[in-house]
Amino acid sequence: MPTTxxxxxxxxxWFLVHTGQILAVVVWLLxxxxxxxxxxxxxxxxxxxxxxxxxxxxxxLFQSFADFxxxxxxxxxxxxxxxxxxxxxxxxxxFVLAFAAWAVVPLAPGWVVSPVNxxxxxxxxxxxxxxxxxxxxxxxxxxxxxxxxxxxxxxxxVSYEVSIGFVIITVILLSGTxxxxxxxxxxxxxxxxxxxxxxxxxxxxxxxxMVPMAVxxxxxxxxxxxxxxxxxxEAESELVAGYQVEYSSTPYLLFMIGEYxxxxxxxxxxxxxxxxxxxxxxxxxFMDGWNATLVSFLLFLVFFAxxxxxxFLFAMVKAIVPRYRYDQLMRLGWKIFLxxxxxxxxxxxxxxxxxxxx
Amino acid sequence: MGLQAIAFYLMATVTVLAAFAVVSARNPVHSVLFLIxxxxxxxxxxxxxxxxxxxxxxxxxxxGAVAVLFLFVVMMLDVDFKSLRQGFxxxxxxxxxxxxxxxxxxxxxxxxxxxxxxxxxxTGPMASLPDVSNAETIGRVLYTTYVxxxxxxxxxLLVAMIGAIVLTLRHKPGVKRQNIAKQxxxxxxxxxxxxxxxxxxxxxxxxxxx
Lengths: 358, 210
Description:
The complex is a heterodimer.
Chain A lengths: L4 H4 L2 H37 L15 H11 L10 H17 L18 H22 L3 H32 L4 H7 L20 H18 L11 H4 L9 H26 L17 H29 L5 H30 L3
Helix pairs in contact in A: 2-10, 2-11, 3-10, 4-5, 4-10, 5-6, 6-8, 6-12, 8-10, 8-12, 10-11
Chain B lengths: L1 H23 L3 H22 L2 H25 L4 H6 L1 H28 L18 H9 L4 H22 L11 H6 L2 H4 L19
Helix pairs in contact in B: 1-2, 2-3
């Protein structure tokens, strides 16, 4: 990257490079979110045999931008009994945390803002803080439905974090590293090197463990991001809109963008942990002589395509599966996912210790 | 180095101010939020020390789980703010004594570790091993030298967990409990009875009539 080393290694140059990288990721993410939101609504509409957004721009493609402008121009209403500071900090927190987690996501070879070593732990820490935006929003509204919604989400997100944590631990055990870049790099080569197949032919018996782990991760990710069928914090038939009831205009927009950024983050994490990240599923040695930026860009497209496919799955689940009852949700998290993933951790650890390979 | 100093003073100030706000805030929910801020900036201090694994664990465990439960409980309680603040002057001397004893204990422990404990054998700051990550270093010590302490700590936690469950578990008679397997097995054949009622068979004409 340093074309003129004397400038780009100075503090100012370093600052400019990193700000530029962060901006690039954020702008790319916001633009993708605009179209993913549209895609989400289109998929949902398609399943229900409606047309979905189709007025603004070709195929309604610019619907999200119209919504964006509408949100910005509307008046911010803060309830009289609300705790104003906390009420406004809550959406900002959700938004900031949702984007902060993207700092360690490897988008393509070499394309990562901060390749820190415990990247998975960093993402886990950031996403475990995401629950505060919702709790604070629900409490600060000083109203019954938001409060009920925030209590539900607190219990739900904490419960499912446990099983997500254990699933992540199986992947860490399998690859022996906590760096997302390293985990992606290890899944190179043919498609059976992906972690969902046990990470290589010699580990093929682990496919019995890793496929259920991928499923558990997917479902827990749905619960963690409050997506249907686990959207109990905002269940509109019981709680109107849950923690978001009192929010309007830009604060609501921040909540929504944060929520979708988290969903896409979970999709990309699912891709990286189980489906090879930017690895296309066949050896990439034939690209060795090519321009490095071009290769990175092509592999970035692979990563992006996989992430969009996962997002499509999220959208399909939203359209197809009915909402869980609250006790069913808790039962699934604590009595099924937690023991299953715990057993899987023991199995993968035992496999690594007693077979000696991998 | 200058950048690190700025980061340190920034986070240290935030930690201390937030910790002070925890005890001085009028609203208990605000107190918990300040506590979270203190935890988070303490995690930042850990990162500055190069202990990124500990920092992440601090955020995951304390900020992500423990403080959520605090917040959960504090929000659920209907706290009377006035009565909370009434005994402040009365309890102040006692609180100061407790705080003083704790500080004294911490100082004594720190001194004894520095002179006689593990830190006494280290003459200067240890350079971190080049190819070994933070988590690996901790793991190697935790599962070899200190494995019995580690297991004992786990046992203590297990006992505490079982104790909490035993304290709260009550079997009230007459409470209808859900059996999910039974609910799932229920189908049209077992859950529904089709009765053929002949018109007028079960009515008593004239009883309800005027």
